Amino acid sequence: MKLAQRATVEREAALEHCELCGTPIPADHRHVLELATRDVKCACRPCGLLFERADRMKLIPTDVRRVADVDLGLPVEIVFCVRADGTPKAFYPSPVGPTESLLTVELPVELADDVEALLVNRGRAWIVGIDVCFALVGIVRTHWRGLTGGADVRRELDHFFDGLDRKAR
Ligand SMILES: [Zn+2]
Ligand SMILES: [Zn+2]
């Protein structure tokens, strides 16, 4: 009885909703980027398809591609780059959220505007959807302790990048 109750609570807690129409959606779902606010929103399948070619929202690709190692010449281990309005921008995940680099970067790969990112971890590089980078920022914000981050955030990041390699083609 108790076990069954707990399972139900957990299932309800895990239930997510489409942020466009409110429909409950599975944990594995698509995301769209609202261009005006740069907000990532959870989307059900019909809403995702609807916004595949919209002006206000863009569907974020789910592909993960491993690309050749890159050196962006930036003094951090983890960085992600996006192209917004044709200009490449680099961001670091930090305990206070994504921080934009003031240094200019040259993108060594082609990226779709806004929704794709080049994610680099100590030289290893992937092309991912921008929502993956937001998830990475979330991990850093949640697990960072003290000045240097600590073992917990290290372990979570290793797990995250192993997962990327498994998804990459
Ligand atoms: Zn929807
Ligand atoms: Zn979501």
- Heteromolecules bound: zinc ion
Ranges with pLDDT <50 over ≥5 residues? Answer: none
Determine the N-to-C terminus distance: 44 Å
Main β-sheet, spatial strand arrangement: 6-11-10-7-8-9
Largest sheet: 6 strands, antiparallel
Average pLDDT taken over every residue: 88
What is the string of SSEs from the N terminus onward?
Answer: HEEEEHEEEEEEEHH
Secondary structure: number of strands: 11
The backbone outline, from C-alpha atoms, is globular
Specify the structural class. alpha+beta
* Secondary structure tally, helices: 4
Describe the fold and architecture.
By secondary structure, the chain is an alpha+beta fold. The protein has four helices and eleven strands, in the order H-E-E-E-E-H-E-E-E-E-E-E-E-H-H. The strands form three sheets. A six-stranded antiparallel beta sheet has the order 6-11-10-7-8-9, with helices on one face. Strands 4-3-5 form a three-stranded antiparallel beta sheet. The protein has a two-stranded antiparallel sheet with strand order 1-2. It is globular and about 40 Å long. One zinc ion (ZN) is lined by residues 16, 29, 31, 42.
